[in-house]
Amino acid sequence: MSILIARKVRKTYGKRSLAQEVLKGIDLEVEKGEFVGIMGPSGSGKTTLLNVLCSIDQVTDGFVEINGQKLQGMKERTLAKFRRDELGFIFQDYNLLDTLTVKENILLPLSLSTIPKAAAEKRLQDLVSILGISDILSKYPNEISGGQKQRTSAARALISNPSLVFADEPTGALDSKTATALLDNLSEINKAKNATIMMVTHDAVAASFCSRVLFLKDGQIYTELYKGDKSRTEFFQQILNTQSVLGGEQGEA
Amino acid sequence: MKLSQLVFKSMQKNMRHYYLYFFALIFSVTLFFSFVTLQYNESIIAATKVSGTASSGFEAASYMLYFIVLFFVLYANHLFIKRRSKEIGLYQLIGMTKGLVTRLIAFENILLFIGAVSIGMVLGLLSSRLFAMILLKLLQFDAVVTMTFSKVAVVNTLMVFGVLLVIILVQMAFMVRKTTLLSLFNASKQADERVKSFSVFPMMMGAIGLGLIIYGYYRSTVLFTGQTTNLFLSMVIILATTIGGTYLVFRFSVAFLLNLFRLTKKGHLNLTDVLALTPIMHRMKGNAKSLTLITVLTAVSLAITTLSYISYYSASSSAEDEMPADYIAVDGREEPFIQALKQEGIAFEQKTFRLTSAQFDLATIFSGDVIGMFQGNTLSDALIIPLSDYHQLNSKVQLNKGEAIITGFSGFQSNIMPIEAPIDLTLLHQESEIPLRIKEVNDTAVLAWRVTAGGFIVVVEDSVFNQLQRLNSEYAIGYSTQEQTSINLTNADEETYKQVEKLYKQTGANVLFKSHEGSTVNKLSSQRSTVEYNLNLFGTTIFTTAFLGLAFLLATGSILYFKQMSEADEEAESYRILRKIGFTQDELLKGIMMKQLFNFGVPLLIGLLHSYFAVRSGWFLFGTEMTTPLLITMTLYIVMYIVFASLTISYYKKIIKQAL
Which residue numbers delimit the ABC transporter domain (chain A) (predicted)? Predict the structure, then answer.
């Protein structure tokens, strides 16, 4: 069953003569339980695609359907509720609120829901034990490390049991060891909770944790790779090869 | 690019940052200029001449106004520089010297000042006409206001704002000099407090703060009673305890109480907690000082405005206390006046009171606390009138043998040194003693204040009165006035009053006391001219105080508004996050409203409480009616605060909308 369906998605910034087409008609489907990576050189439209898919930005043309609900035509208010109930977000710069403790940050998406406190508490304990942040719950974001912040962010994204989790360069600000630990956590959650995750990254190592990787170039899907039964190292090598064919700025990978 | 080009370019691009500061400047100039213009306006000078204190009042008020403006502009400049810390840091990063950056900002400031002073003066000229009309209306003075462009006012304003500019430049140069590159980039992030965990210290400090405020309130309620031995010291104590207490409450109690509340939630916060409670808690350390300042300023201006409004509001009722009849004449001087009235066919009624004096010991009727104020000299004079004369005012009163009543006991006297009936009072005249039982104390005004000199009146049986009169004819003590005649016109119109006013003076019925050589003449005023005099006297006072109150209010309101604007800018990132993870604009705005309810509501509430106790402690020195003027001024303040809060909320609305 497809969780996400995108058809002929186009996105243009600017007006008339200055208009720049960032997404040039993208068709995409994501199945439940998939861990999808989106890669591509800088300026290929990765983040724009993610923003459009997760309803933070509007498409110029085409449509996006998540869990059978079409985003286009929804009102601002309905969209916000939809994001809150159906989607989870992990951002490169963590996006935690400085004034809230780790626990409060994680429970934030539930603050307007009717989920009983006990149930919320159980979900929280479940997640933090997988992510290994049980002992920092009462700390403030400025008292914890980047890796811990990103795990907190991941826990917040998952607390509402979303249909789909969007991650925008989640490892971008982390060192490689911390990044690997976080990705391990994400794939564990992906398997254990059958959570669907869609991740934008320019890091081949990060992408190698996914079950499928899409390559974007100049606003179009250039190719896609399935991990299948390959080992992570093999998949990593394959990703690197594709990247070199793709050209552009791979030095960063 | 030349320095001047850089300045113009950056001003063009940063209009959003400048506009707030620019507005604050224009506003200050407008307020100051219109006030000074008023001060030098011919028709205003003519109208306020009657009360000699007006011009000095205006002058004192203009100094106060200067301080408000100074404080306000300095604050706005401080916020302005803080908002631009990144820009200043960037200039230094690309290799500009501190001197050059200082010159750059100085140049900008001079431009801003020139612009603001020009615009402010034009607006000030326009608004001064409005203010002039309000003032003349208050003085009940019918005159067409001709607004002239006063050179003195212009020079005055230019000088004041010139000095202010120099101060601002020094402040700014100092700020640029003392900051390092690193701290400039972080300036807007300072003053965040992490409330960590339960600790005894803030709880103690918060409790002490509350205790101090309550103690200050208590002291204020007994300020003008016998319990106070040193008035000045008491006032200083009250000010220190309430202001100190307010600071401690803001600094410690608020964050502490909010944290307790937060802990009970065990991490399951609702959106209001996230948007209102936690930011307030975290900013309390940085905001405590300014909130205290705002609260105190609100309280002070509210109290002053209320007190002067009480004076104005009570102008006629206190005139009635001073002059209980339309016209009053003493010791037979009413004869020619009455003849003249009859001749003109003017209807009137008259009441004549015979008067005599006796002495009594204050110690017998006042409590020990009060007696301390007289420092051992407790023998005092009392005015005595016979019951039969008192019957003209109240025919129902009956006195048994040895009984008496005290009348005309009102105003601040009755508040400071109350007398509770029944009480024993012994009238003295040399060796004679007349013991009396006072069965009632009332505040009916019987005699002119100029006759009683503030003392109370004892109503006695006619026999007692005759006895005292006889004693006084042998050896006179106390008051010299022997008789008072009160004359009230019946069904008179405005014209008649004017005519009678002239007769009153022409016939010499208004003479209270004349020395043998005729060199000193004390005169009475009619009730109407007393009312006029009061209105005139208090009209100027209420105008200047109301003007200052308005200036204070606008300054404090604007500061709260500015603070919230920069807070909103700083928190835009949080709103972006919250909107991304799926909260609607309306939901966020609801939380923001709660936050503003606190930010504006708490200083206002504490300010109102402070001013209530301040007014309550001494209102009777200013007038006869407290509740209505107090409620009216408070309502006005509340409305103004609501306006500022709404402005703030609409700014937040914009920020939230733009956040995503």
Answer: 4-243
Please check whether residues B371 and B253 belong to one and the same domain: no
Selected for mutation to probe chain B from A75, A82, A98 (highest B CB count within 10 Å) is A98
Q: Which residue has the tokens 């919230």?
A: B564
Rama region for A229: left / alpha / beta (φ>0; ψ in -120 to 50; rest): alpha
**And the tokens for A208?**
């190698």
For position B187, what pLDDT does the model report?
47
Q: Does B279 touch chain A (CB under 8 A)?
A: yes
Residues B109 and B203 in one domain: no
- Distance set, CA B525 to CA B67, B139, B321, B537, B541 (Å): 39, 18, 13, 15, 22
In this prediction, residue B6 has a pLDDT band, given cuts at 50, 70 and 90, of confident
Last-in-domain residue among B169, B190, B211: B190
pLDDT tier at A250, thresholds 50, 70, 90:
very low
Together in a domain, B158 and B24? yes
B476 and B574 in a common domain: no
- Domain holding B5, by residue range, is 1-190
For B550-605, how does the pLDDT look when each residue is reduced to its tens digit (9 = 90+)?
Answer: 888 888 888 888 888 888 888 888 898 888 888 888 889 998 999 999 889 989 99
Predicted TM-score of the model (pTM): 0.78
Burial of B402 (0-12, 13-18, 19+ CB in 10 A): middle
B192 vs A contacts (CB less than 8 Å): 98
CB contact under 8 A, B579 and A80: yes
- Distance, in Å, from the CA atom of B644 to the CA atom of B650, rounded to the nearest integer, reads 10
ipTM score of complex? 0.85
Cβ neighbours for A101, distance < 8 A, ≥ 6 positions apart:
A137, A138, A139, A140, B267
Q: Taking CA atoms, what residue in B is nearest to A165?
A: B581
User: How many whole angstroms separate alpha carbon B155 and alpha carbon B629?
Assistant: 37
Task: Determine whether the interchain pair A82/B269 forms a contact, defined as Cβ–Cβ distance below 8 Å.
Answer: no
Same domain, B236 and B296: yes
Q: Give the end of a domain, one of B483, B509, B525.
A: B525
Respond yes or no on whether the N-terminal peptide bond of residue A116 is cis (omega within 30° of 0).
no
Residues B377, B516: one domain? yes
| Cβ neighbours, 10 Å, residue B242 | 26
Summarised one tens digit per residue, pLDDT across range A131-150 is: 888 899 888 888 888 889 98
Examine the domain organization and report whether B390 and B510 are in the same domain. yes
Q: Given pLDDT bands bounded at 50, 70 and 90, which one contains residue B530?
A: confident
Number of domains composing chain B = 3
A118 touches chain B (CB under 8 A): no
- Mutate which of B268, B278, B285, B576 to disrupt the A interface (most A C-beta within 10 Å)? B268
B582 contacts A80? CB cut-off 8 A: yes
Residue B490 shares a structural domain with residue B520: yes
pLDDT tens profile A165-212: 999 888 888 888 888 888 888 888 888 888 899 999 888 889 999 999
